[in-house]
Amino acid sequence: MLWQRIRIALLTGALVAMTGLSAFGDEENKEKKAEPIGPPAGAAPAAKTCIVWVNEMVQEQYPCTRTVYDKVCKTEEYTAYKTVCVPEVRTHLVTTYKKVCETVNETRTVCEKINVCEERTVMKSYTVCKPVTHVTRKCEDHGHYECKEVPCGPSLGERLHKCFGHKKDCCDPCATECCEPVKTKTVKCWVPCPVWVEKTCTKMEKFTECRPEVVKVNVCKTVSKQIVVPVTRVKCIPETHEEKCTVNVTRCEPYKATRQVVQCVPRTETYTATRCVCKKVAKEVPVVETCCSSPCDSCDSCDGCGHKKHKLFGGH
Questions:
Q1: Tens digit of each residue's pLDDT (9 = 90 or more) over 277-306
Q2: Partners of 49 in the beta sheet?
Q3: What DSSP string runs through 241-280?
Q4: What is the pTM of this model?
């Protein structure tokens, strides 16, 4: 179905093109009326044509009316307001104060300072020496001397005699060491004996003590007393009276004024409009013969109206 619609659209375009060619041919035929209508001798046979109705859009002019607004300048009157200052006399009450001096006796409290001698108890500090007993602990050595036998080495003469003199054989040849007698000497040694000894000693130390003492002190006291003092005061007495004054009062007064106003006045005008109208036009189109041997009902080259379809692309 899609291919059939495409073929119909292409066929319609070809028909429109052929219509222009046929119109051009008609004009040439009108110019050559003297020529014979039949085909010339020896020419090819004329092609078969058929009439096709085509919808064309034709321009058509028709009268129409429309409303147009014209701008007109008019003068109109209106009521305007202006501010005017009007003098007005008004009366109002004014209060003034009059100053009057007067003398009054007042009782006032005055403070005076008086020197007074008073006795006061004061704590005074004194330095006192007092005996203080201390216990001292000391470690003392209460040892003694003892006499002990201590082996002593050879003397210097024995060492020289041993080095340069004749060496005697040992009394025991099998002994590993020589069995010479060991010499000793008596030495006095100290044997310590520590003992802690406590001793009591007394010494004088200084201490500070506070003792109460009565002392006379000069004190400045404040004493209040009342006295009568004359005082001069200024007294204000109010007085009321009327005064007149001129006041400018603002008022709005109306007045007539004119102004230019632009108005739109409607008017109706007639004009010619153009529109496109769809009309059916009969056109003669050449028919392309096909090689279809089957009947029209079964062949794909026939459309629903009974006309043969033009094979633009050839073949079924």
A1: 888 888 888 887 665 444 444 444 444 444
A2: 286
A3: EEEEEEEEEEEEEEEEEEEEEEEEEEEEEEEEEEEEEEEE
A4: 0.25
Spatial separation of the C-alpha atoms in residues 64 and 70, rounded to whole Å: 19
Where are the domains positioned within the chain?
2-67+277-286
Q: What is the dihedral of CA 283, 287, 288, 290, to 10 degrees?
A: 140
Question: Cα 286 vs. chain centroid, distance in angstroms?
Answer: 83
Contact 112, 222 (CB under 8 A): yes
Q: Look-up: residue for tokens 């090819």?
A: 44
**Per-residue tokens: 225:** 């007393």
What are the tokens at 255? 């007045």
* 223 dihedral zone (left: phi>0; alpha: psi -120 to 50; beta): beta
- Rounded CA-CA distance 260/222 in Å is 96
Q: How far apart are CA 89 and CA 245, in angstroms?
A: 6
3-state class of 5 per DSSP?
A: helix
The conformation of residue 41, written as its DSSP 8-state character, comes to: T
Half-sphere CA count of 198, side-chain side, radius 13 A: 4
- Using DSSP's 3-state secondary structure scheme, residue 162 falls into helix
Question: 135 forms bridges with which residues in the sheet?
Answer: 200
pLDDT by residue (tens digit) across 19-54?
654 544 444 444 444 344 444 544 555 678 888 888
**DSSP letter string, 6-38:** HHHHHHHHHHHHHHHHHHHHHHHHHH--SS-SS
Could you count the other beta carbons within 10 Å of the beta carbon of residue 57?
10
d(CA 183, CA 187): 13
With contact defined as beta carbons under 8 Å apart, do 135 and 198 qualify? yes
Structure tokens given for 222 = 């404040």
